[in-house]
Amino acid sequence: MAESRSPRKTFAAATVALAALALAVFLLARQTPSRAHASEPNGTGTERHGTSTFCHVTDGRFTDCDPGTPGLEEWSDVPPTTFDSTGGAVYVDQADLVVNDLVDEWEAGLVGDQSFFNLGAGGSSTPDGLVDHLMLLYESDRTVPLGPDEYVLVHFMTTDDAPDGTRVLLHYAVRIYGDGTFRVFIDGVERGSRSERIETMIGKVGFGPSPTNPVPHVFSEFQIGLEVAGFTVCCYSPDPAWWSSSTPPPRPPEFPSFSVAAASSTPYLPSDILALNVTGGPAVVAIPAASLGLGPVDDLDALSYGKPSANPPINFSVRPGAVGAPGSDLAIEAPCAPNEVAGDEYSVFTTGTNEQRFDENGVACAGNAGLPFGLSIGHDVDALDNLPPSAVDTNADGVPEFDIYFSLTAGSPALASASATPADVLVRFGGTSTVIAVYAPAAALGLTAGDDLDALELAENGLAGYQPFNPVSATSGDRIVFSLRAGSPTLGAIPGATAGALLVPNPSGGLPLVSVPASNLGLAAGDDLNALKADITFVSPAPPPPPPPPCGDGIDNDGDGLTDEEPLDGIDNDSNNGIDEDTF
To answer: CA-to-CA distance for 532 and 525, rounded, in angstroms?
Structure first.
């Protein structure tokens, strides 16, 4: 029988209605529980609790609570909430994991060893019949296990009671990694660091079948104490307005092409196109600057092979000094000393944040871990393409057989010889000739004197020269997405444009349009994106369906025996019946 305690010492579960949101939420108020019941922990460190009559272990799997009974009992009596739009499902429950006196002692800093919170890693538990943890399980539709540094990203909100008695809405973002660790961000601020346990929180990823899905898939479990640094968790809802969970798709092996900025290029030239070293070690020069018709002082700062890139939709690098949006991998990496964000590549899976994909040397910093470029700290990756150099240099002799598109920084001597500017997109045609030509002039992109195009993605349509892409026509031209260096005059003339935004030419002429704002990439207002590889169809709008043919097609569309009575514009132009006569 659960012991009765004062409101300060107890937790319970009840269901309340939030009329403003029309949601059912779990109220986790501190009072004697009506449905909680305790038992001694079994050999796996589990116990009965709250709404479920079975055990809970946060270990990334559906636990067999009673080996003597067929089936997996954990979560079996907790109905999931499923959402077809995301392919996910969430299970929500509460658990009695510790003596609640220990919670108070932990808050006061009197308990140094928090192992009594960790049921899934050999810790002990001392349940007392009082609900003290919120338990969550998320299922995804990914059918490939996560790699060690891939993670399930879980967002949820709770309304919590602050120490001063006010009620606040807190936004949690939890990254649960494939190696058994996790990270927690509350309102964009990281709590602790990447670990197997953070305060009263534990997160684990699992892979396999579940009681509701026989196909092996990724799922994750997360537990959080109902007191976190003085906050008392009050309300949580399984409604999708309060939570989301996303699992990245399996990523194919990547062998990008890249270049490094002049100030950081040693031992490379700033116009060399580099590739990963397949045996490990330093990056290799795949296409030397001389093969592009460039000299040792020329600085290639944007690159594209004109071919579509693979997922995820957007990958980028940044100029030194970028800080990133709170909670993003870039923001976590930014405080590292010496600063090394410019040598990394970041991917965007979820709007508003980013994760590290490549790291200059592959050495983890602040818990981040990316694949190694084979560079050194201090290198600034300022040009990217998703494809390896072999995509344009098929015999690997350093001389490209296919066209390469790029831009050069101000002060590059080759600009003068090509009668070009830093805002032009240049081309080095495939073959033995090293002549450089202007492919897309700055004016065709809506740019002006003083602009510096410093990141590029291009899908060439196979016709000679640059044909501007027109999203309102049935046939498309060459799609270009780009970014401008900080200080470019055009940035100040476009509402919402920053050096971290992705731009596209305006099909109507004039100034470029913002295709993806910097905030959607997890960048801060002053961050400067300086290298890009992206799915061009994602960041450059596809053409809409063609409009219906106008009146004047010589057809009696309404079948009244008369052809083309008046323009098909939705207006009764001849004022005889209030409608367009000749309509489809």
So the answer is: 18
Please answer whether residues 319 and 532 qualify as being in contact, where contact means their C-beta atoms are separated by less than 8 angstroms.
no
Q: How far apart are CA 355 and CA 380, in angstroms?
A: 18
What residues contact residue 351 under an 8 Å CB cut-off, 6+ apart?
Answer: 520
Tokens of 100: 């609640």
Coil/strand/helix, residue 450:
coil
Report residue 347 as tokens.
């991917």
Q: Are 568 and 548 in contact (CB under 8 A)?
A: yes
- SS3 at position 538: helix
Q: Long-range contacts made by residues 544-553, C-beta under 8 angstroms, separation at least 24?
A: 544/471, 544/472, 546/473, 546/474, 548/584, 551/580, 551/582
Which residues, other chains included, contact 113 with Cβ-Cβ below 8 Å and sequence gap of 6+?
none
Sequence letter at residue 49: H
Token output for 479 = 């799609």
Distance of CA 324 to the CA centre of its chain: 13
* Matching residue, tokens 């540094």: 149
For the record, the structure tokens of 462 come out as 């196979």
Strand partners, 82: 89
Short-list 371, 250, 358, 381, CA closest to 311 = 250
For residue 240, give every residue at least 6 positions away whose Cβ sits within 8 Å of its Cβ, in sequence order, or none.
83, 85, 86
Tell me the one-letter amino acid at 14. Answer: A
The rounded distance, in Å, linking the Cα atoms of 342 and 357 is 13
Rounded Cα distance, 357 and 386, in Å: 12
Residues contacting residue 305 through CB under 8 Å, at least 6 positions apart: 257, 385, 387, 391, 392, 402, 403, 404, 405
Peptide bond into 545 cis (omega under 30): no
pLDDT per residue as tens, the chain (584 positions): 222 222 222 222 222 222 222 222 333 322 222 222 222 223 223 333 346 788 888 888 888 877 888 877 888 888 887 754 545 678 888 877 764 444 444 444 433 333 333 333 333 345 556 677 888 888 888 888 888 888 888 777 776 666 666 767 777 788 899 888 998 888 767 888 888 988 888 899 999 888 778 888 898 998 887 764 444 444 444 444 444 555 665 555 678 999 999 999 889 999 999 999 988 889 999 999 999 999 999 999 999 999 876 556 799 999 999 999 988 899 989 998 888 999 999 998 778 889 898 999 988 787 677 889 999 999 999 999 999 999 999 999 999 999 999 999 999 999 999 999 999 999 999 999 999 999 999 999 999 999 999 999 999 988 889 998 876 554 568 999 999 999 999 999 999 899 999 999 998 889 999 999 999 999 999 999 999 998 877 676 544 444 444 444 555 555 556 555 555 555 555 555 555 554 43
Q: Please choose, from the candidates 154, 159, 166, the residue with its C-alpha nearest in 3D space to the C-alpha of residue 233.
A: 159
396: alpha, beta or left, given left = phi > 0 and alpha = psi -120 to 50?
left
CA distance 260 to 242: 43
- φ, ψ (nearest 5 deg) of residue 455: -155, 145
